Structure formats: structure tokens, C-alpha cells
Amino acid sequence: MPVYFIRRMMQSVLVLFVMSLLVFVGVFAIGNPIDILISPEADQHEIERATRALGLDKPLWEQYGLFVVNALKGDLGRSFVFNIPAIDLILQRMPATMELAITATFMGVLLGIPLGMWAGLRPESFSGKLIMSGSILGFSLPTFWVGLMLIMIFAVFLGWLPSTGRGQTREFLGVHLSILTWDGLRHLAMPAFNLALFKLSLVIRLARAGTREAILQDYVKFARAKGVSSRRIIGVHVFKNIMIPIVTVLGLELGSTIAFAVVTETVFAWPGMGKLIIDSINLLDRPVIVAYLMVIVFMFIFINLVVDLLYSVLDPRVRISESKG
Amino acid sequence: MTGGSDAPTLVVENLRTHFFTRAGVVKAVDDVSFTVTKGRILGLVGESGSGKSITGFSIIGLVDPPGRVVEGRILFQGRDLASLAENEARKLRGSRIAMIFQDPMMTLNPVLRIDTQMIEAVQAHEPVDRETARQRARDALGKVGIPSPDERLKAYPHQFSGGMRQRVAIATALLHRPELIICDEPTTALDVTIQGQILYEMQKLCRDSGTALIWITHDLSVIAGLADEVCVMYAGRIVEAGTVDEVLDRPLHPYTLGLIGSVPSRNVRGRPLAQIPGMTPSLLSLPPGCAFRTRCERADAACMEAPAITLPLANRPIRCVHPNLAASS
User: Fold this and answer.
1) What is this structure's pTM?
2) Which CATH architecture is the domain A92-284 placed in?
3) How far is B140 from chain A (nearest CA, A)?
């Protein structure tokens, strides 16, 4: 196990390094931030001064080298726009995004697994078919459109839920969370559902496929031959088996949920990282873009590691040399 | 049959189990009748697709849709299982009637520990606490010859060999001392030495506790050493029945004759192995008349009509108009 862990860590460092290079070169290619940051009336002298101040006069390789050296010290650069460390800016916005992404994931799991299992147990029934048709919609409708429709129905026509912002937040362990207040919950409901929709559809399909496969297995028949109640067969025998693919996919999806909460955050004006990155791209705030992408890459690596560990908890067959560890 | 007080454990009368598929009705079990008595072993022999496993599943009430028992009675200690409500049937399954499956690699849930799977079997029928149930499970494992059962209870199925897994399945089936155990080719996936051990143990169990056994297999050599009575099945029907000695020594039905002839033996070393020509007909498109007609060398115009059960010799029911009455080896 330790050897496996160390190897994973080395791979992760390599991935981080390669990503930083790609991101840095990619952002460099987008355009010169000076053109946007400085007023159009500024003269040549002023432009040169600003360029030097931001370190943009140096060649690309030197800028990158400087970035790497600073990054190793924990400094991912200062925002051109806000003139504060980019990482602080991101960490400030992170709780909002995490709250949204995690709530959405929970929604997807808590609704998706029962619905998917139901559809898997009654594939021919009307309700089963309805659930599956619904999941196709969840897959194929674009997130921004669903978000707008939700706002139109629940905020404009019915007036039940607020359409923008986080609402009232409460501090918990130094982090501001919407989920702890009623007002915050009302603000959270729509964006979280919007973000959850794709995941929900995915979980429904995975749970249904898994259930249909599992109920045909001999172990289910043997459990029935033992006289075990069907509730326990479904709740224990089938459930534990379908969790393996669901956890894998959800783990991978959690990363992309956080990374691509951008659309939902924009539609619902949710003050998270996604909105920050969109603003930063518009202003070509290079250090923030780079730092954001590095944070996301780091998050992906971390989540994958957690999923692998969780996987071995769920599936005894993949426990790596457990007896020695 | 032996003592007057010994009422048969199981009487199956005119059982028909059909599968209603899109392509048509598959008569997997078509008018099957037999009796199993306390402490006796009935062998159910036939090729793949002859309906022997479905017969077993019909008895324990585990025929999956689109199949169902359409006709007949399954009298278990006088109660008709065919007309039992699902909840009543569930109470009998695992406690009074147990079943052991063919592939021990598949019958245990890979993600649950052995103790979980055995304790739930105990608790499904008796309101005992976990600790008592665990001890019952441990004792059962010890009885089927699993060393250090306490430790093994905490293991997962993949940590067992095939033979050990089948022992776990057998131990699970024995937890409630059932009166009837249906064994669906439980030794087919095991190697011969393990098969021998398991056969020995099952036979002993049957004799000692008076459990009735239905042993489903395609392997005549297993039947020869294990069973008391045998029913030979072909295309959903029993074509020949009798005691093992009678049937194996003097097969009357051409199909039984062919089956016995197909067992490789040392006497014919070097010569091509005997086989029954053709293959089992699809149950969807059975030829009219005797189902074995197309593969039978004795077939003639008389076989165009489905043969009824006849008794050419005492206690030897067969379904054939051309029984092999010539004295054979």
C-alpha cells in the first residue's frame, strides 16, 4: 500500500507540472492583458511601465520559470485586476462553489439511486419508462437553458424561489454557508438542482443498468433461495454491487462539477469560482486563470485518489495487499 | 416406500412450467411427476436444456418471469407449493427447502462477507440475535469441513477456492436442517477429488438426518454412485424413471441407452467415442410426436404420436413405443 501511494503521488506531481506548462503557454497565447487593463488613452511610456510592472516584458520561458519557482513557494501570482494574491481570491470564492457542487452531487445520488433502482426493477412498467425518458432529457437539455427555465417558472411565474445570489449565509468553521439558513437554502435550491440534473440522469442510468444486471446474478437467486426478504436483497445485495460503478463515476464527476459549475453560477449569479474565472477570462487576468486551473487540476488528482481508496472499501476484491498493510 | 409411516417428502404431479417469450411458449417442464422420500436421493438426469434445472426452480418457487408454473401440484409434506402465496413460499425457502447451485463462484455475493451472508440466512427464519446467528453459522461451516471457521467467517468469497465456496453454500443450505435439498449440479464446476468429498458428505447427511435430496446433473457416473432413484429428462419430459440400479443396468428408453453409451470407458479405448447424433431440439419448435424421434435409430411412423407413459416392466415407467427390452449388460 505505501509503495502504491508513493507511486500515485509521483504521478500526481508530474501531472501538475505538465498541466502548469500547458496552461501557462495556453493563456499566453490568448492575448496581451495590457491591451485590456490599461486605458486606451495611455501613451507608449505608460504602457511600457505597466508591462514591466507586471513582468510581461520578459520572454515566455523566463515568465514560466519565475512562475514555477514562486509556485513551489506557494505563491501563484497576484491578480492584475484586484492586486491581491490570486490564490486568496480563489479560496475566497471556493466555499460557494463547493457548497453548490456538493449539494448537487448529494441531490443526484439521493434521488438518482432510488429512481434508477426502481426503473431497473420494473423496466417494463410505465413509471420505469417515464424515469428513463426523464433521464434522457436531463442528459440532453443544455444546463443554461434549464437554468433559465427554472428561473422563469419558479422565480418569475410562481415566485416561490429567489433567482440570484447566495442569500443569507451563516459562518461554520470559518466558512460562510448558505445551507445553514432557510433563506440560503431557498437560494441554493434552484442552482443546485440545475447543476444536479446531469448527474442525476447519469446516476439513474448507472443504477438502472447495475440493478438489471445484478438481479439476474446467481447470488441474488441464492439469496432468494435462502428465504431472505426481497427488501433486503435489493437494499443490501443489489445496492452494494451497483455502488461500485456509481462511486467511480461520481468521483470523477465531482471534479467536473466543480470545474464546470461555471454555467450554473453565471445563470444564477452564484458568487463562486466559476463566475470568477469567467470574469478573469474577460479581463485576461492571467495569474487568476492560471491559479484557478492549477487548483482545479489539483482537485481532480485529489478526488481521484479518494475514489480509488473508497473503491477498495466498497469492493473487497481490489483491496491491495491488505494483509501486509 | 420402505416403512409405512414414511410419507413422501415431496410429490410432484403433472408439473408444467412454461416460459411465455415473444417467440412463443417454451414448455421447459412438460408434465413431470415424481416422488422423493425421506432420506432418499433422487437423481434428475438430462442434457442442457432438458428442463431439469427449471424443475428444481419450480419446486422452490424461483422461476423467473416470463416463466411460471402453469399446471400441476407440488406437494411438499402435503402442502401444495404451486398455489402458495409468495410470502408463505419465502418462509419455506431456506428453512424447509434449500437449494444449492451449480457455480459456487457466482452464488455468493462478492461484496458481502461470509458471515453477513450466513447470518442473514439464519435471521430470515428465526428471530435470533446476531451473535447466536453467527455461532450457528460457525458451527455449520465446521460441519462441512471448513478449517478455522471463526476466521473464515470474516473473509470474502473471493478468498475461498471453488470447493470451499461450495461448502459455504452447502453450510448455508443446511443452517435450518431442511427436509428437502435441491442440488443443481453442485459439483459440476469442481475437480474430481473435491466432487468426491462433497458427494460423500451429502450422502452422509442424507442418511443421518433423513433429508430428501434431489440431485440434478448431467453426469451419470455421479448418479450411479449417489442416487437411489433416477428420472431421465428429455425436452421437458421424464422419459424414463426407476431405481438407479434398474435404469443403469437395464435402460429401456433409447435415449437413456444413448446417454449410458456416451460415457467414455476404458473398454473401448482407441475407438471413436459413442455419441447420440444431433442435438437437443429447441423447445420452441419441438417436432410433433416423440421429441427424441429425430435422433433415435428406432424411430418409425409410430413415433409421430407423442408416446404416453407405459410400464413395459414392473415399476419402470417410460415414454417410448419402442423400449429396449432385449436384455443388455
Assistant:
1) 0.77
2) Orthogonal Bundle (1.10)
3) 15
